[in-house]
Design a protein that fits this description.
Blueprint (H helix, E strand, L loop, with lengths): L14 H9 L3 H23 L2 H18 L10 H33 L4 H23 L3 H12 L4 H8 L3 H17 L3
Helix pairs in contact: 1-2, 2-3, 2-4, 3-4, 6-7, 6-8, 7-8
GO molecular function: DNA binding; sigma factor activity
GO biological process, one term: DNA-templated transcription initiation
InterPro entries: RNA_pol_sigma-70-like (IPR039425), RNA_pol_sigma-70_dom (IPR014284), RNA_pol_sigma70_r2 (IPR007627), RNA_pol_sigma70_r4_t2 (IPR013249), RNA_pol_sigma_r2 (IPR013325), RNA_pol_sigma_r3/r4-like (IPR013324), WH-like_DNA-bd_sf (IPR036388)
């Protein structure tokens, strides 16, 4: 078991001074800063993540960032604790977003089932059917509605660009597109 150094608290040590020392590469200052702030960093991460394992990982990432970026700490912007708490909170929120995205991808992949050659063939067939349905519905629109929708959705134009291309007012373009989409949605194939 490793021995920890003397008890460090904010009344005996200046955290801002420790960060300045860390920026100079002083490992002993890093150890003191860690002892001083690790529990609060972990607590901040745990509060956001609600998972002890993720909170531990995030705490480790925060202290790696402290080691690398201590030179970025500016005492004029706030206390050392507020700086490290901000790092912890940002890292924890990033982790939540990453885990949420991964979870969504997993659910989407599971919903699609297994993938294979046959799935690609059926997907291509469904895409072709959808394209044909859209083409049929577009043919039933009025000329101005069809033009506006084609430019906006298939031509990649913004509504303002559609307005300029057709020589009509922007609100008119928006109305044509909205009414055309409503009409398409209500059509049966």
């Amino acid at each position: 078991m490793t021995e920890r150094g003397p008890v460090v608290d904010e009344q005996t040590v200046d955290p801002g001074g420790l960060l300045a020392d860390i920026a100079s590469g002083r490992k002993d200052s890093f150890a003191q800063f860690y002892d001083l702030t690790a529990d609060r960093v972990y607590g901040t991460a745990l509060k956001v993540l609600r998972d002890p394992g993720f909170a531990q990982d995030t705490t480790q990432e925060v202290f790696l960032q402290v080691w690398r970026d201590a030179h970025r700490y500016d005492p004029a912007q706030g206390s050392a604790w507020s700086w490290v708490a901000m790092l912890a909170h940002r890292r924890a929120v990033d982790r939540v977003r990453t885990e949420s995205s991964a979870s969504q991808r997993d659910r989407l992949h599971a919903a699609r089932g297994h993938t294979g050659v046959f799935d690609h063939v059926s997907e291509d067939a469904l895409d072709r059917i959808e394209r044909d349905e859209v083409r049929d519905k577009m043919a039933r629109l009025s000329g101005p509605q069809r033009e506006a929708i084609e430019l906006a959705y298939f031509g990649g134009c913004t509504y303002r660009e559609v307005s300029e291309a057709l020589g009509v007012a922007l609100p008119t373009v928006k109305s044509r597109i909205r009414e055309g989409l409503i009409r398409m949605r209500g059509q049966r194939v």
